[in-house]
# Entry
Amino acid sequence: MPPSGPVDKPAAGHAPRSELLPGTLEMLVLQTLTIAPMHGYGIARHIEQQSADVLQVEQGSLYPALERLQRNGWVTGKWGKSPTGRRARYYTITSSGRKQLGLEIAGLERVYRAITRVLRHA
Amino acid sequence: MSFFDAVRHRLRPLLRPRTFDRELEEELRLHIELDAGQQGDGHDDVSARHLALQHFGHMAYYKEETRRMTVLGWLDILRQDLRYGLRALRRAPVFTGVAVLSLALGIGANTAIFGLLHRVLLATLPVPHPGELVTARVVVPRGFAGGFALDEVRALREAPGAPPLAVFTSAGNVALEAAGERDFATVDLVDGEYFRILGLRPVVGRLLSPEDDRAAQPVVVISEDWWDRYFHRDPAVLQRTVTLRNVAFAIVGVLPGAFHGLVFPGEFAVAAPLSTGALIGGPDPQPARGGGSLVIIGRLTSGASIARGSAALDAVFQRCCADRHSNVGGKPGALGAAPTAPAGKSAAAAPRLILQDISRGIPMSKMDIRTDYGRILLVLMGGVAVVLLIACANVGNLLLVRAAARGREFAVRLSIGASRGRLVRQLLTESVLLAFLGGALGLALAWWATNVLASSLPPMGDGAGIGLLGEIVRFRASPAVLEFTAAMSVACVALFGLLPALRSTKTDLVSPLKESGHGHGSRRRGMLDPTLVVAQVALALLLVSSAALLGTTLRNLRAIDGGFATTHVLGVDVDTRGTSYEQGGMVPLHRELVARLQRLPGVRAAAMASITPAIGGRWSITPVTVPGYVPSADDDMTVSLDAITPGFLDVAGIPLTAGRDFADGDGPSAGNVAIINTTLVHRFFGTHDPIGATIRVGGDSGFALRVVGVARDTRYRDLRMPAEPMVYVPVRQSGSWPYLVAIVRTTADPAAVARLLRNEITAFAPGVRLRAMQTVEDALDQALSRERLAAGLATLFGALALGLAAVGLYGVVSYNVTRRTSEIGLRMAMGARPADVVRLVLRGSMIMVLAGLALGLPLMLAGGRAIAALLYGVGSHDFPLLAAAMAALAAVGIAASAVPALRASRIDPLVALRSD
# Structure
């Protein structure tokens, strides 16, 4: 019997492929914001540069992620002025966001350790 | 960031959708511009921008995704759930139908009874801040003492610290002419402050002002009902008049229909200035002797307390008025006043003035619906709550069956990654849909049922259309009632929806997938809860036994012999007030009238009386002195007086046990005579022969009456009460009797004579007013309307409970038969006969039924105790009746399981075994 209920699926049409594991983008955004509050483009650039373009992320996918982070109360967004005088929304990590980041990093490390162990003994 | 910030953040696009879109737009534009600026020298503006857009990805998609992260996305999922839920419900029409109907019956019954309960017990007056309204009453050692006179009110208004006061009284039976129609009306007479203190706003025009009262202006405000009935909601009503006792009163305003007057239960019709009372025969606001008739109301503004207000007014009352009230009151019941203070506690205690809260209206002293119906309504409310519980149990069971059948579907969805929360939410959405449909249908059912009930209730009072009781029963979709229905539906979801949803999604993924697709899940998970059925049977027993007790009570009450004829007797009230006959009243008319009625076809005999059994009339109560009887201090020496024409006792079916009936010759000239009833003889004469004795009625200024006959006792007023001592006198003997009841004994159906009777009376005395044409049978029914209401509704609820429990049992048994198909097939293959299979299935269901009965027994006994005060002639633990109720449930149980049992016995072993 095929599943007939609603499943969380992407909207119809163009579905961009993310090379990242699910949830990883959020973690990277949180980590980036621990440095300083940034606007969306700044976050995108930072991630690209730090990963030396290994992690291919469509920049647009950042915005749903930011919205989700705000929804969970891990990040807040506030309008401010950029150094060039442009109006931009700056994102700040909250204390519960830092806590969440810690949890996620710990979880990810556990998974990688496990994967590494398996690969080494294979 | 707090939790609320998160919530506000989520709701942002809903609250300010334009801002949300604009800001997102701006943010993304900036992103693209910044990225384009990074593209280096090799690009012109256009190609840089193109590259930036490429980096970004599908712009529209990400915008949409961002929105989806907000409340809009959540709404989207909700819509998806709802659509899916509706589709799922549509695909199972039988399940949906049974579930929705069960809920509708349960919720509908609760809504209907709550509507009644709210109107009778809870509803406050439809005025601003009803909790501030008070009335002033005088308390004397033995009850409440009368009303106030105008000068007393003036003095009380001067009291320092007194709340603002207003007064009103009423004039009953005022001859009315409105828009060409003639009737009687009760006119509220109010002073200029009355409407100001109530804070009412007119629908049309204005209300009565102090100026109207000062100048005794003949102006009135009418009820919205009158506006509708007489003037068809014509806005030009302000140019019209109504005639009250031959005086034209200009209509200056219309009151909102929600206002039914201050007296509960009552019906506001029309209000005129207090000072115009003299024009329409209202009570004198400043009587020369005797107590006043004004009712004082007040408003405790700005948090003034009842105690402080009472103290302020009482201080003045003690100086100005207390003396006048000290000799009023006395006999309990004589004033028809409500509660009586403990008698004889302190005879010297002076009258006191106290304020009482009237936020829910001033109770009508003679017929306090609250005490009369309050207990019944609470019992019924309990009953319908039980019905709803049974209905919820049913729906819960159905959902469990359904969930068991969908076990594979859930397992598939869980295994491909749907979260359990999502599935629970999906199932709850279906439950909410069911509850919503059930609630909506229940509301419609309640509306329909109460309106049917309202029109079936006998009219009280003036007999036009729906009576007072019906008016109260009539369904009103007030906010309180709608809130109640909504709360009820939500409670239902919590009751029936949550458990199955949690249980059926807590699953190991493997076993349902491994099983064949027959929908019989593993034993633990799929099994229906027999406890639900057991509880249903127990609750149904409670309702069925209560219904049996109340039904028996009604039968017992109907069987009471009131001591008068109950069939073929028709009566009508004939009133001369406000007509050309008013001067002499009925006395000059009655002899000729009776003779004419006597000659009507279908009439065996006719007579008139001031009161007739069951049908009623006007009560007069008078003190009596009997020669040789020395009353003790607390002896009640009052008797009821009935003025009758010769032959009345025969027409009413009241036999004489000694002496003679009145004759045409009896009257003032031949010496005053009386017939007394057996109770009076027993109480005051003992073993002496009363015939020929002389009694006095009406106190010192009354009459001496020679007893010429003794009539059998009758229970005129309330069939449950023992007969009261009664004195019959001839109509001609004294008084003018402005109104009498004409009664006729008919040879055939009395209803057929009604029109003849009416025509004959109006032909003989054009203009007299006829009211409340009624047969004794109808009148008795009306007197029992409270019991009929209780018994009827209890029977209905009992039947509902029985039906729902039967459906529940049927569902469980037939589900179990399906689940055990292969087992039963095996048994049959091993040689079990069909009868054995039937017995096997029935045994299982009987165990559930018996467990339910055992659980229900203490419930039933407790229920009987709870309604003991409503019962008549049957004990709350009446063994045969309760045994019969249990037997009935057992029989219904067997019937409900018989169908699946027979189905089980026809299982083909070969098919059954091959199917697994």
